[in-house]
Amino acid sequence: MLRAVYPGSFDPVTLGHMDIIRRSVKIVDELIVGVLNNNAKMPLFSVEERVKMLNDVTREFSNIKIVPFEGLLIDFARQMNASFVVRGLRAITDFEYELQMSQTNHKLEPDVETMFFTTSIEYSYLSSTTVREVAAFGGDISQFVPEAVAIQLNRKMNEEKERVMNEQPN
Ligand code: ADP
Fold first, then answer.
1. 154: pLDDT confidence band, cut at 50, 70 and 90?
2. CA of 88 to the centre of ligand 1 (A)
3. Whose CA is nearest to atom 18 of ligand 1?
4. How far is the CA of 161 from the centre of ligand 1 (A)?
5. Residue 161 has pLDDT above 90, yes or no
6. Angstrom distance (rounded) from CA 66 to CA 68
7. pTM of the model
8. pLDDT tens column, 71-128
């Protein structure tokens, strides 16, 4: 049984993440999408919201599970009985960090390998950070994220705007 963990913040899940998911579920028997619960990163969406959105947009795949995690990735992979970690590589800027991570993880647990998918060209520029920025300024994000995520992201931005307005002194 080939089980892999695909870890990330997914704040929110983008079409770039979806492309990696779609390609890896074809290769592995089971894909566990690990949603990082790291409040130090001050995520826009809570871990529960991110898990829910991922569940909503991956319904078409039968061999996938969305699981929140915190702490060391390699401990999570062991807990899940996964022998692979899936990561996506966009540009050369991702490479250095990803190389360090995979080598460190390999030292910590030699039985867990990292499998890299190079990004599909149409998503190579895409990151959750830029999607959040475009959304914050009211830009059209429909070409970057699944429809259900665009709805949640726009709702979240409106809530944030209202919160800021209510905080302002009269
Ligand atoms: P981000 O880096 O956008 O905040 P995550 O931390 O959630 O996203 O990333 C999880 C994994 O998905 C990482 O391996 C990252 O390189 C990969 N990934 C993110 N966006 C893309 C994309 N557009 N194409 C390919 N891989 C991607």
1. very high
2. 6
3. 88
4. 27
5. no
6. 7
7. 0.93
8. 999 999 999 999 999 999 998 888 999 999 999 999 999 999 999 999 999 999 999 9
